[in-house]
């Protein structure tokens, strides 16, 4: 983690831009107010910050963007679900929040070099994989094919549309979308399917044995994705998932995020599939 | 020169004045509200002279006897844990001004505390919590500063209660490390061993003599006696650790869950449990908020509440989390066991659940 000797206390950050993505999803683009901290801060794709909303509390939120790409800013895309996130929805450009981080493990960007990369996300699971996708695109010749599969409830829930378009138009990159609720309308930009993200897996034009899969979404989705890829020939060790559990401290002290022997906050949240396969198979662990 | 010294009871007041002179607040077991608990003391008289305790599953009772001992009881109701990892404390504050600017300030509240009389199991409990709050990926400055400012006088056991089982875990009712001074109470005083420079300085100040061979032998016999009083048995700890994780669907989990009330007395009294939650307490004006850290328990439903799913909604999952964490996954996390065999969780369980019995049922 960044900086000081006290891992519990947040640091002030300013919202340099507030973006409303959808009716209950928004993005805050942040900058530490302390210039020294701001210049020292860095993160790896897949890590998260604890974001503090004054008077209510802290929440674990993935870091969306690649910092170099955004030049001195980092951003978070947040969905309103409860106390803290509801309060955050009312934030505006110029408001202050607290930030601690970055925490947790990261996507296997080094291991993925020379391999085809498949990003499979569901719902807001796309946020934690933006930085990884951008890293592949910025170092395009070091990776094989890039395939991005995203699933959402219905088409109007799609956020990051401009970004997806840019990705889809990048060299050797394809974006594919699935929606389970309705027959999708062709938007003329990328392929849509009715159904689940897994529907795309059997027909992917990649070298499964030499691919790395990174997936974030509801647990049943990630498990189905992992199983399908392994069935298609991907190596289990090359399939990565990101887990979610209640978080209070993010530093392995509060015990809330435990899953078996794991503290998801510091041993995860990104795991190779075999490491969590057994843990996830037992209900209530 | 002998490694053992003899401190007569008559020097206890001198020990207390040494602590006072060196800026320590001294806490020792005292007879309070029907139990023996840690509290500040200022004179030797404050100690629970003559008191003995009886602890059984779901049962705790103290009795005053004619015994000339100050430490004739076993473990105090609570361990040393609340002195280092407080049940509730403010960890940071934040002020908000009219412009919305947030000024964060860490709060580190440290007292120099000398604990007079820490049982060997509780000493091991501290060592285990050190691994959570200090020797972990992140260090908690509050805990660390308190540790640096702590003076520990360990008190070896001369007796065990019915629920004690440190021996079954491969330990012994004798302090092995982590103390400044370790004492064993024999009739008119204590046989003392030095554990640190701080302990040596105190002994020098007391101007005590070496213990005689007979005094040392008496002390060691008392400790052996305490060990022999323990009757509980467990398979070797590594076997317990492996078997629990191999039996996550054992029917005994349902059985114990049907008795367990999820009250959290076990985690509250345990010297090693570290779970906590964090909470914001804003003032009414909206200008300042205190952010607290408060003990939590894996027996509370909120503990596993995550938006979308409460992972351990069923009491069976909560009991299983508790037991497998203490007696298995703790090893993976901290390279040590999560239980020191103090027996408090058994004593304070309102429905007399005995963790050792439950383990034996599952590991049969
Ligand atoms: C590694 C990680 C990355 C995440 N990334 C994002 C993201 O990019 N965008 C996003 O919108 N959400 C993300 N989440 C989920 C987000 O943390 C929760 O939605 C949020 O904590 C809910 O807080 P609340 O106070 O609004 O909800 P409430 O339901 O009121 O929750 C109360 C408290 O419980 C805890 N809690 C509840 N649900 C969760 C949860 N899912 N994860 C962790 N703690 C929880 C928090 O301490 C929270 O403050 C992430 C979670 C994790 C673990
Ligand atoms: S689990 Fe029970 S016996 Fe073991 S240390 Fe905790 S309270 Fe003591
Ligand atoms: S998870 Fe339960 S057993 Fe483990 S430390 Fe927390 S309260 Fe204690
Ligand atoms: S969030 Fe506190 S231990 Fe992981």
Automatic annotation (TrEMBL), chain A:
Superkingdom to which the source organism belongs: Bacteria
GO molecular function list: 2 iron, 2 sulfur cluster binding; flavin adenine dinucleotide binding; metal ion binding; oxidoreductase activity
What GO biological process terms does the UniProt entry carry, in alphabetical order? pyrimidine nucleotide biosynthetic process
One Pfam match: NAD_binding_1
Query: What positions does the entry give for [2Fe-2S] cluster binding?
Result: 249, 254, 257, 265
Q: Which residues form the FAD-binding FR-type domain?
A: 8-109
PROSITE patterns under this entry? FAD_FR
Query: How is the cofactor bound, as the UniProt entry phrases it?
Result: Binds 1 [2Fe-2S] cluster per subunit.
Q: Which UniProt keywords apply?
A: 2Fe-2S, Iron, Iron-sulfur, Metal-binding
Cofactor dependency: [2Fe-2S] cluster
Instruction: Report what the protein is called.
Output: Ni/Fe hydrogenase subunit gamma
Organism of derivation: Aquella oligotrophica
From TrEMBL, chain B:
Keyword set includes Iron: yes
Pfam families the record matches: Fer4_22 (PF17179)
Q: Which part of the chain is the 4Fe-4S ferredoxin-type domain?
A: 249-280, 330-358
InterPro entries recorded: 4Fe4S_Fe-S-bd, 4Fe4S_Fe_S_CS, Helical_ferredxn
Q: What Gene3D superfamilies does its record include?
A: Alpha-helical ferredoxin
Keyword list, A-Z: Iron, Iron-sulfur, Metal-binding
Entry GO MF terms: iron-sulfur cluster binding; metal ion binding
Segments crossing the lipid bilayer? none
Instruction: From the Swiss-Prot or TrEMBL record, give the protein name.
Output: Sulfite reductase subunit A
